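Forwarding the complex inputs:
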Amino acid sequence: MSTDTPRQLTLRILRSSPGEGIAPHWQDFRVDEAEGMTLFIALNEIRDTLDPSLQFDFVCRAGICGSCGMLIDGRPGLACRSLTRDFGPLITLAPLPVFALIGDLSVDTGSWMRGTAERLETWIHSQAEPDLTAVEARMEPELAEAIYELDRCIECGCCVAGCGTLRMREDFVGAVGLNKIARFRLDPRDERSDEDYYELIGDDSGVFGCMSLLGCHDVCPKGLPLQTQIAFLRRRMVAVGLK
Amino acid sequence: MRIVYTDVLVIGGGLAGLRAAVGARRRGHEVVILSLVPAKRSHSAAAQGGMQASLGNTAKGEGDNEDVHFEDTVRGSDWGCDQAVARLFVHAAPQAVRELAAWGVPWNRVRAGEREVVMDGRRVMLSERPEAHGLIAARDFGGTKKWRTCYVSDGTGHAMLYAVSDKAVAEGIPVHERMEAIALIHEGGRCHGAIVRNLVTGELSAYVAKATCIATGGFGRIYRVTSNAVINEGIGAAIALETGAASLGNMEAVQFHPTTIFPAGILVTEGCRGDGGLLKDAAGHRFMPDYEPEKKELASRDVVSRRMEEHIRAGHGVKSRFGEHLWLDITLLGAAHIDGRLREVKEICRHFLGIDPARDFIPVRPAQHYSMGGIRTDARGEAYGLAGLFACGEAACWDLHGFNRLGGNSVAETVVAGMIVGENIADFVESPAGELQVSTALVQGFLAAEQGRLDALLQGKGMESATDIRRRMQDIMTDKVGIFRRGDLLAEAVDELQVLLQRSRRIGVATKRPGSNPELVAAYRVQKMLKLALCVAYGALQRTESRGAHYREDCPRRDDANWLMRTLASWNDPFQTLPTLAYEALDVRGMELPPGWRGYGARDAIEHPATASRAAEVAAIREAFGHADRAIVQQALMPYEHLVPLRFRGHNERLGDPR
Amino acid sequence: MSRLLERSATLPPPIARQAPETPLALTHVTAHPRLRRSRWPARLDLLQSASGLFLALFLVAHMFFVSSILISQDAFYTVARFFEGAYFLATPQPWIVSCVVGGVLAVFVLHAWLALRKFPASFRQYQAFAEHRARLRHDDTGLWWLQLWTGFALFFLASIHLYGMLVHPELIGPYESADRVWTGSMWPLYLLLLFAAEIHGGIGLYRLALKWGWLPGGNPDAARRRLRRLKTAFSLFFIGLGLVSLLAYVRLGIAHAERAGERYAPSGDGTPATLAEGAAVTPVVVPSRRGG
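Prediction (whole assembly, three chains):
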């Protein structure tokens, strides 16, 4: 795993600063690789020692919060948990496409995801106010686990960046949104029907826009079952369409 | 210049801030949330193991109730907590879990029948009651008598944060992202909002509010080795401190989590040990029973962390390139359990260590994890010394945790405090005291002052490097204000931090752009972080006893006679280099649970003069009430119901309740 | 959405404000009534898949019929006449083939129209996708690109072929087809058509399975890997079969070039005699030759 002389890595970073009108351009930074080095460590080292103006987003640096999605050698991924040893000596880093660019590797995923939440109403729709002192409603253990399986999305935006459809059609809802609909549809606490969901995703900017390229599924850092969930939703929504 | 007016300004988009915002919004008030990052990226998401609430649904949680949870919490705090707040908390925690269940959190559920679990290194069969089937399950956590930690696999914080964040979206609460509050607007002991810097454009604006709530989490990043996210720099607490009016409580009470992966410091949940994982040394020996025969790996975090460091000092650590560590062994739990209940742990091990925890031991060592201290508030969540300023969650010293918090109590506190403080904020806004009366000149003055500070950094001739100062601060804190503390080292730390603080006033920034400028951000933050570091180090130096997570090798005993009090740090003069410390005594005579032995750890506390008489009084009251309802006995011992907002009063029902 | 009040600093702060609105909590929990969204996107989506499936299945059947030439000329002749109803009706009725071709053409046009909706609608979209594909280096994204281009080619290639069959259904037979391929110079078109159709069809079937979630076996990822292998095998098999068949027609076409235009007469085993006779006496001009 470790070698006597550390590799010298070149990080080729797509720099930009829209606020100052600086157009995207590549810049190379050289760092000595250390054992167990992640892109989080490498990028911070660059900022601390080479260029304090370098912009990137990290929060948890443990692969949990989804802040650090970027294109690593062209593929969307979480920088914090990408070990440099898994890459060649030249690593290219670019900001995620689709999202508004803030500068360098930093993009505005927050507004996009908030827009998705508002558009798809990604919350439990229930008429009843819960009685907080009463014993809670029951749920089958398997169902709770199945919901969590879909609830694990961290809104990192990798699926959005990996989606060819979204690159062409910016109003496409994307896998992140479809997965959320699948999650709430599965949840018996949400009283919405398939007809209600059809109102949200029943067109070509919704589930029917998906061309099943499955870039989303293949780049999802959480390994969410996007391919089966989108197919499932498509069947359900077509069933509504045929009624 | 822009001024934004709102009823309630919540600073921080984590669980506590979001829940408080939802509470105030549901009472009909306009709320704006400021967040450094998109709300769902907040560090609440990293809480893995679960939240404590005494539902008592599982076999091992049967018989659990508020009383048991209360006692565990007070013992965990080493009697440093506010017992009325602890009561308030344990009362509302079950409601919080149930509310979150209704909001969509997919809590793991009880499956009726036999199941195999690992306890104390052995596989045993547990039988879950059929009538509990489908109710919210719980796992074991350190320092608790019952299995009480409700969980969603090991992504509890994530599931909770997403549910509450989506609820905030449903309520139409705007979250202004990438906005940082850098000063509070205040005058005459009344807070009027905050001066806010847009982290993208660099623009300053003023947010004027009837009530301001700080929920910015902890300040772990003043340490080099911490499980905290990189945004946990304590700026919320620091801006409260900088008002000179508010004060920070118990800043020396810093928790170190026993199991963070070595050397990255990334947390692996206490659920690993709760579910049966063991700590082992270089020889593969399970050492915790040698130190803590009762609770073993599941003593409170302060105790386990200390025992681990003690064991390493005794020469039993595993030596590696980066230093020494110990092993966490969860292989005995089996791959199926790890895949289902500890999948984040599995992912972390795979991505950061390249190991499979179902087959390999995990290298761990304690790291800074939680700040028990924070903005000192009363039980309503309102800051001492500054009306209209509220705080909740880790940023606050509400004082639920005293000198050590139990695992699972912090994520519970976020939502419980959010529920309660949210109601109290709404009450405040609706009261005459909540009237907004602020002059534009005052707001302008604060804006100009902050702009001046930033300009000085950007245009000044300072030559000091923010990165260097910050790194030095982190080294000092980890090396000298860590798990084991000593008077001489603390004194050194305080001296060095003071020098750093002076140096930080001469920081120069090379990147001159006013907008998105990480160098400028690092510069103004480190100035604030140093003040927090000084509150921690100086408070620790002054506190010549050991209590909870604050352990002084030169004063190893808990000293109730002299130190049963809360440290209050304030910073009245911007040019002082040390905080002003004051102390607030805890009233033994009002305690429901008078000081005693925690049930683990040291037994040699120096007793408070009033402890014996209060203990006798408590015993007499219990005697007098005989078999009366426990709620009535409790009421007689220490009334707290007046602190519970109306919405959350009432008896928490449980399975098999006689009522 | 934001009901935030923003004012300039010169205005005095609003001390008294209107009464708080009704809490949103209750209004937000219900999915508020909206205009009912059109059901057509669902139907069109299904139709696109269904038409694609139909065309792919037709392609499979077609390829097997065409490759019957590899068995014998009589075999192909029999197949061709079969579709003219020669075995149910008194005389072969080529218009039946025209009808089938017309039907296929209709489905083809429908499929093309539906698929066109997914094509890049502007250069900007085209460029965005091209850049995305080049950077991501992702198999299924690349496959769609291939499908896009083969589909585009099929607009022309398949249309020409279908039109020919529509107007001259009777010219399907060993000699007739071989003459068309060789003497009529259709082989380059058929060669391109073969590759385009089999690649497009193979990827299309694979994508259909993914799109609708037909992923047999317990593990969807493993199923997808299997399907991908199946897809490649499908394309390779039919391209192979097609090439061999096309070669057979080419060779037959070369051999028959001298007598191009002559109708095929079967060797006589089990074939209606009238049919063979009729074919032999009617001189027919090969359409492509006619065209010059």
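The longest helix of chain C spans residues 220-255.
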